[in-house]
Amino acid sequence: MYFKKVWRILRVATFCAFASAGMGLFFGCSQSSLETPQSSIPQAKEKSQAESLAPDSAQAPIIIKLSFVGDCVLGDYKGASGATFNAKFKEVGGDYAYFSKGVVAVLSEDDLSVANLEGVLSDKELQNAFVKPFSFKGKSVYTNILKAASIESVNIANNHTRDYGAQGFKDTREILQNAEIPYFGEGFLDIREIKGKKFGFGAHRGWSRDIKSRVKDEIARLRQSGAEVVIFTFHWGEEREHIANSLQREIAHFAIDNGADLIIGHHPHVLQGIEEYKGKKIVYSLGNFIYGGAKNPKDKDTMIYRVEFAFYENPNDAKSAYARIVGNINENAESTIRSIPSVDFWEDSSAVLKHSIIPANISSQNAYNDYSPRIYEKNSAEYERVLKRVEEYSTAKVPEKAR
Length: 403
Description:
The chain contains 9 helices and 21 strands. The protein is an alpha/beta fold. The strands form 4 sheets. Strands 4, 6, 9, 10, 17, 18, 19, 20 and 21 form a 9-stranded mixed sheet that branches. A hairpin with a 4-residue loop joins strand 19 and strand 20 (351-361). The longest helix has 15 residues, at 381-395. The radius of gyration is 20 Å and the shape is globular.
């Protein structure tokens, strides 16, 4: 629907300590070698030029926009009843586009939108793998909800993708593969080539320092496979806590120290702050998004995190563009927070990056969750509230209990 040009897929397999869970290539093999399958080729979106990053010289930069959204629970938890996600799907007559009608205009204008897929996709009657109050599972056709939302890539490293055991995890990967939706996490790596630039993706659950060796190895594998930008996502932190704890910060810093360029986080189900570390951004929690995990969560604020890359052939053009943008930052700054620079200059890549926050709500209704997120109107009280909250969480000290 929104796709125009073809991307080439490069899948990267990695061997890790999760071997017993069948980790490996996107297509399910378990090996440490690197391969390049070609059977599933997603297409790029229609792209719009970012004139603010265009140089004054004749050589235009390569402009690439990425968007990141938080927890997407497509389905119900076991035993759920009433106004649930599945009930809403039935109510709207199976209209896949209903769940993104308030956000698709934004997500369809970028080159890649990435979400955290929290839960299992399977049409089988599966036994819960754990005794827990919330085990999420949705139908295989729900991949069409992702497609209708213009979400092209998903993280599967979280505490719900194994709610229904190894079979549920396997079904989820196969359903995503059949729907031509790339995934990454839990040892599976992915490289997206967009307009000739390679972006590498990896992810892990981040509640233990034990993941550090795997993170380091996977970043190296992505680099060895040609990734020019490495993006790592982590499922971490404490639920409903707005201040990132010390372990989140430690793991994020470790990943950047070992070559990651951007860190995206989720799990707390609420917004957390943003940090700049060694010139790289850490977004600690995006909150929820298309969220079937609760009928009426108290905190419905969320955001889309947008990164706009401008890659220049001439390093001097990149420097000039950066200086010009920074010089006009007060005039042009939009959807940013004051405590964190919104523009970065990557000298090694001859690239200028613009970061922005797009404030949103997980529901089109304030009184309850109707599973249809919406963008807040620019400069509205709600819009400003989200920016203020992220600013507050970004500058807050780590409380003792979060250390």
